[in-house]
Amino acid sequence: MDFIAFALATLTTVLLRLLCLRFFQTPPIKLPPGPRGWPIVGNLLQLTHLPHRDMSELCKKYGPLVYLKLGSVDAITTDDPDTIREILLQQDDVFASRPRTLAAVHLAYGCGDVALAPFGPNWKRMRRICMEHLLTTKRLESFAGHRAEEARDLARDVWARARGGRPINLREVLGGFSMNNVTRMLVGKQYFGGGCGGRSEAVEFMHITHELFRLLGVIYLGDYLPFWRWVDPHGCERKMREVEKQVDDFHTKIIEEHRRRIGHGGDMDFVDVLLSLPGEDGKEHMDDVEIKALIQDMIAAATDTSAVTNEWAMTEVIKHPRVLGKVQEELDKIVGHDRLVSESDLAHLNYLRCVVRETFRMHPAGPFLIPHESLRDTTIHGYHVPAKTRIFINTHGLGRNAKVWDNVEEFRPERHWSSRVEISHGGDFKILPFSAGKRKCPGAPLGVTLVLMGLAQLFHCFDWAPPEGVELRDIDTNEVYGMTMPKAHPLVAVATPRLAPHLYQ
Known about the structure:
CATH architecture: Orthogonal Bundle
Binding site for heme: 441
Mean pLDDT: 90
Shape: globular
Number of strands: 9
Order of helices and strands: HHEEHHHHHEHHHHHHHHEEEEHHEE
Low-confidence stretches: 1-10
Number of helices: 17
Strand content: 5-15%
Strand order of the largest sheet: 1-2-7-4
CATH class: Mainly Alpha
Number of domains: 1
Distance between the termini: 114 Å
GO molecular function, one term: oxidoreductase activity, acting on paired donors, with incorporation or reduction of molecular oxygen
Radius of gyration: 26 Å
């Protein structure tokens, strides 16, 4: 009897334990689908020098939400409008942060800026300064005269370069146009054009800016495999520190110049405004590091992104003469031949706006939005997304998603036609040049204006063709990966004036 009682008691205990395990055990975590990874490195070795294209292929294979293990970091990627809406709007409070990458620490003043700062009080304060003191409608309108001068200088510069049918390096022209517009608002100073003494300084800084964006966009193994930092065989961190020093020297010089001229009158530029603002915790002024971080956001972001977008738009329009003809037909109707384009014309140039929107679809300024990071565990489409997951929203893949767009490799502005073409955003989330939600780019209206104005001026004032001996089909559209995505090779083209000579002088 004792043996039978013992056996029954043991069996009962085992059954109760099995029942408890069944009903109370934490169910296995259901992560989004994705490729099998290797030990330690995960999926890192499956990414090439064009990771946006690799991740787009993964979305085609595994679905709209793909999980990757990048070394020690959880990551998800998507190029699906509904999934992007879920992340950026419906769960904006979960995904509003940024990862502290080594590049952001080195190149954004310890993540102390607006674009790359993790979500928190410091980011909120810096963004509020931008929105309340720098990027207000009133302040941006106050620089309209400067933007008009830069547009006239753009036409004059191209006209001078075009004499004798000489090919023009449009990357140089468009870079100078973007930088002058931004620096006149930011520091009250032109760097390119006739009479500017700072050209060599500006060329150097533009080179540094391009390098900065390349480094910020690199998927650096040291962020995903901590031991890699001890090796760093390509000297990536050393290069970050070098660029960090060069950028900081440039910003220090700007601040010192402005401090020397305080009290001498004149219009207030953005740096003057920042120097006049109080700091935190009762300080009389903002810290220099905070001012430098905001200067960098303004110069680097506005200069590089608008110049990259304009070069891509010019490339596609020159490659498609039918599109150039339609753009010029609209400009001739709205503007005519007796004056240059003004900002008030831009709202009426619907076909040109379609060209810009189509450019954002095929060639977004950045292949991904700046990566987001989840603040806590959550679920998307029934899948578990852990806290601290890195989110890669693939804007390049979004614009070439065959489930969203037809004939994805065809440059066809007409696909966007409507009575009022919206460029910067849309409720359908089919293009996303300036992001959405809390981390939407605060300078979107300015960026759209600079892109439209540069293109309108160049297409109105000139006919465009590839250099002699270059066929339309030979104009390359290969890209280089980074935080921004420029053409692999600068666009070179021949300009022929189409207006009266006095308008260029």
